[in-house]
Amino acid sequence: MIKRHPFRPFFILLSVMVFALSSYFFGIDMPWVVEEIVEEIFVVSLWVLPVLLIIGVIYSLGNKRSGDVPAQKNMGNSEVLAKLIKLLEIKGIITAEELSGIGVSQSPMIPLEKRVAPVVPETESARENRSVALFTSWIKENWIMKLGGLIFLIGIGWLVNYAFAEDWIGPRDRITLGFLVGVAFLLLGQWRIRLYKNQGSTLLVIGSVVFLLTTLAGRFIYDFFTPALALSMMFLSVVFPAAASVRHRVYPLAIASLIMAGIAPFLVDFVMRDVFETFSYLFVVAAGTLWIVALTGWRNLAPAALVLVFLYDLPYLTSYFTSHASGSEKSTALFFAFLFAALFYAVNLAGIIKRRSVDHADILTAAGNGFVLLAWISIAVSEHLRSIVVVVPLLVSAVGAYAVYSVTRIRAAFLTYAGIAFAMLVAATAFELSNPMALIIAFTVEVSVASWLVAVIVQSRQIGERVAALLAIPAISVGTQILSWFVGATRFTVPFFSNESAALATLTAAFFFVGYFLRDTSERFAANGALLRIRGISPVFIFAGALYANMFIQIILWQLFAGASENFAVMGALVVYALEGVACYVVGHRRQAKGITQFGVFVLLYAVVRIIIGAWDFPLFWRIMTYLSIGAVLIAGAFIRKSKKQTITS
């Protein structure tokens, strides 16, 4: 026979009341008979809901079979059993032989709280999903209590609204009653969380919400409090559950406290009233959150606090603020921006060094902190001072990268702070240079040097190659410009000493530099002279350098011979490509280097396709000279390869 739950009728009635409340609140159109019934149910619910909540609380407090049982009582059972066996032996009631006969060990039992569990290393994926799992388990465990608290808050809101409409109590009595109810829930939650963390945290959140709503009513409806006083009262009501979360190690309660502290200024219309007051409050909230992180190790709170700071920064990072704010307001906002950056930088860096580990929360905090500070410098600092101001976070991030790697040897932490320093360097370059090609040249040099330094410091060519992959940005920009010259009519009018030519030359040298110094091989040649295989993506950089070098050769020939004959310039470039292709093809076969051989074939095919397609536009004389020259080069290359092959065979 299935045993029915004793509170099932209450749950059914509770569902009906929720439907009645939602129907009344959203104004669902219903027949007049049903509407009358719903109104009656709604009036009754205002009085029955508190009774149901009290019954649910009493039931949950007395239910010892639930999963929320105090651990202290279970921990003491082993000690009681050990003392009882010892007493029976002393009194002579039972002997050691009888103890062994019934399967009870004579050795003292170890209490549960003193037993040491084997230490299992926590994986990265488990660490990432820990916060989500904690919040989900907090929602699932003792959900009746949480649902009852939510419905009780709705009932209290309607009851207060009804009491206001009927003028049962005066304005001061209403606010006082709200504060008393909120304080009562806070005290009850503080008492209950010692044994039942889920119940206690729920009551603490209810108390804080009641306190916030009461302060909101006193601020806007009755105008009892000033914005600063109302915000101070709300902050104190949030500090109470935050301290309880640290003391009793309840992570969801800390998240709830941060959320309530973040929305408090919006409730009292405190945002954008005064720059100093707003950011002072925000700094206190951020410092308190990072203090919780330092005490408990809940790293996910740090990026959450940074997101809160950024949301408050958004109104000040608009053109309206920069155009209408005074100089003192901009200076104050920029001062707090550097203060926040220093706070998050110091706490995050100290935490990584102290724990000797880094996770995604630390990386997000460091990267987000640098992004927010760079946004403030771009908005609040005058144009002629931006490149100078940005040097400060650049040097600080570089020192932090060196310090964290020299102490912990963690590559992820070093790359994070080194990446921030590199972003600041690029920003300083962009602030200082206005010409696009000059900026491309500077960026190319910075990426090349950064990739080499990273590879040397962390002793990993693979990481250096990933940094060098940023060369794709200037390569696409310069390549697009060069291709427009190749297909356009202005290719013979481009001056050799121009920013575009300088950018092409710099990019070519950068590709060769990166490809040469980031090769993943210990020796360049083997004992028999064969070229060792270059691993990684270094051949890609060498190939790109050769490709851009051919473009550069084409521009040189255009400028040298364009005045005499444009056709001669094109023919000379094709002959140079053919010579280069034959040379790479022969050297590749001789040294058994497949990559060099393939590059030679690629260049030869380009030269052949170019003379087949484009040479028909030449005059007959230049067409004959082009075909004869390239044909002679190919025949000579075949003879050279054959003679070398015969020499090796003999």
UniProtKB/TrEMBL annotation:
Coiled coil: none annotated. Pfam families: DUF2339. It comes from the Bacteria. The chain crosses the membrane at residues 41-62, 143-163, 175-191, 203-222, 228-246, 253-272, 278-297, 304-321, 333-351, 363-381, 387-405, 412-431, 437-458, 470-489, 501-519, 540-562, 568-587, 599-616, 622-640. InterPro entries: DUF2339_TM. Keywords: Membrane, Transmembrane, Transmembrane helix. This is DUF2339 domain-containing protein.
